[in-house]
Known about the structure:
The protein is α+β, with helices and mostly antiparallel strands and 333 residues long. It has a single domain (38-328), classed as HIT-like (HIT family, subunit A, 2-Layer Sandwich). It has helices at 121-138, 176-192, 196-207, 248-269, 306-311, 320-328, and strands spanning 3-6, 13-16, 55-58, 68-74, 89-91, 94-96, 102-107, 146-153, 165-171, 211-214, 218-221, 232-236, 274-279, 294-299, 314-316. Strands 3-4-7-9-8-13-14-12-11-10 form a ten-stranded antiparallel β-sheet, sandwiched between helices. It has a three-stranded mixed β-sheet with strand order 1-2-15. A two-stranded antiparallel sheet has the order 5-6. A hairpin with a 6-residue loop joins strand 1 (3-6) and strand 2 (13-16). Helix 1 packs across helix 4 (248-269). The longest helix is centred in the C-terminal third of the chain and has 22 residues, at 248-269.
Amino acid sequence: xxxxxxxxxxxxxxxxxxxxxxxxxxxxxxxxxxxxxxxxxxxxxxxxxxxxxxxxxxxxxxxxxxxxxxxxxxxxxxxxxxxxxxxxxxxxxxxxxxxxxxxxxxxxxxxxxxxxxxxxxxxxxxxxxxxxxxxxxxxxxxxxxxxxxxxxxxxxxxxxxxxxxxxxxxxxxxxxxxxxxxxxxxxxxxxxxxxxxxxxxxxxxxxxxxxxxxxxxxxxxxxxxxxxxxxxxxxxxxxxxxxxxxxxxxxxxxxxxxxxxxxxxxxxxxxxxxxxxxxxxxxxxxxxxxxxxxxxxxxxxxxxxxxxxxxxxxxxxxxxxxxxxxxxxxxxx
Length: 333
C-alpha cells in the first residue's frame, strides 16, 4: 500500500508509491550531447570566452591564462547583477526591487570530460574551498542575504554545458524554500531544545536502514520522506549552521564522501543527471543552534507533473530504505 510520509523538518508530505516500486534498472538514462571541446568556453586556452576571473587556484600562468586548477568567473548571462542599489518599492499591493545579486560559475577542473565521481579527492576539496572563499568574500556585501551553491549535472538536470562546473548566486532576500526549512528547524528546537538535523544524524546512524555511508565526520543517508528516487543527503556529524565556516579537515573528508556517494549513484543508476545543492544558513546570520548545514543530491529520474505542481505533494516510486540498500551494496571496485 502507498504511504504518505511527512518530512520532519518542513512538514512537507510525499507519497511513497510502493505499488509503483521501481528498481535502479527501471529508470531511463538520459544521454547528454557532448559538444566539441574546442568550442567550450570553460576549457583551458578559451579564457577570453568568459568574463575575467574573480578567483583561481593556479599551478602556473597569470590571470585569465591557462595553468589554473579551479577557476571562478561571473556568469556571462547572469540572473542578477552586482551593480546598483536595491531600490525597494511598493506598487499598490505589490513589492519590487532591482535585480541586485551575484551570479558566478565555478569551473571545477581544466579536464573537459571528467566528473566528481572521477576527480581525485584533492581536486574536489579545492572546488569546495573555492565555494567557501567566494561565499566568505561575497557575504561582506550586506545587500546579500542568502548565497546558494548548486550544481546541475547533465542535460536533464538543467546543465547547458558538459564541462564540469557549479554555480553560485547571491540573493538580496532569503528564498521561501529556505525559510520553510529554517522555520521547521526552529520550531523543533523551541519544542525540544535540540537540533533536528543532529537528531536525524543520530537516529539514522543508529538504525542503519537508510544509511548509505558514514565517516567520523559525515553521514550520507536517504531521507525519511524523499521527494525524488535516490535523493541523498550528506550531513556533518558536528553541528554547524554555515558551510563556509568548515575547516580544512572537514572539507577534506567531505571530498571523500561526495566522491564515494556519487560513484555509488553512478554505479547504481548508470550515471544519471542530478542536482546538487548546499543548504546553509543565511549569510548575515551568526551561528544558529537550530540549523545544520548539509548537502542534498537529487538524481533526475522522474518528472514533476500537474499533481505535484497543484498540491505540493511529491510521488516517489522508490522507498528510501530500498534506495539506501542499493547504494550501500554498490561495488566501487
